[in-house]
Amino acid sequence: MVRAAGISPAYRKPHTPWQHPAVFTGPVASSGPARTTTRRLAGVVVPAKRRIRRLLVAGPRAVLARIAKALGLRGRLDLAGGAVPAGVTVFDEDVPGVVNLDPPLLAALRRAGAAAADDGVELRVNSGWRSPEYQDRLLRGAIAKYGSEEEAARWVATPETSAHVAGVAVDIGPPESARWLSEHGSRYGLCQIYRNEPWHYELRPEAIEHGCPPMYADPSQDPRTRR
């Protein structure tokens, strides 16, 4: 039997199976000109050096996205960035989009959630805290959907100005839950902020005594988004 040059004796140990696909089936010369590794993609041979160069030009975020897609991690990365699975309530203790909310807001939501439960209503969280990266993805998606940054701004703020990124805003659903909070939320300092978003709530402690302040037509009218 001919042993391939440079192959570690550890190759045949049971704890190294992940290394096996990299081993050549025949002997390898220890001298001679280096060859460029290639890979066939849809019938096209792409030199490895060119692939590496393209990844470097794309930047680290693109590299991580491609790795995540290849490994099937997109859903878990979105969850860590603030995506909220269906059915999550204000009482959830495991989802970052909920537990990373500003503590006073989360406490008010849970007080309201307990009262809503007495009325047979479940306060679910459609969206809460978001990472800047996740917010940026949502914004780019809104621009693609609505056709311009100006129109997208009526629905999605930038990562720098988003109340979600700051952890001080929550989107409540389903519609009957948002309706319950619209009617009773001020008792807990929870107010709808934008007229076009009946699901978006923030904490306004003064509302407990004085009621919720007037709503903005949409996020683009909010002075906080114009910084």
TrEMBL record:
Residues 1-35 are annotated as: Disordered. InterPro entries: DD-CPase-like, VanY-like_core_dom, Zn_M74/Hedgehog-like. PANTHER family: D-ALANYL-D-ALANINE CARBOXYPEPTIDASE (PTHR34385), PEPTIDOGLYCAN L-ALANYL-D-GLUTAMATE ENDOPEPTIDASE CWLK (PTHR34385:SF1). It comes from Amycolatopsis vastitatis. Residues 101-202 form the D-alanyl-D-alanine carboxypeptidase-like core domain. This is Peptidase M15. It comes from the Bacteria. GO terms for biological process: proteolysis.
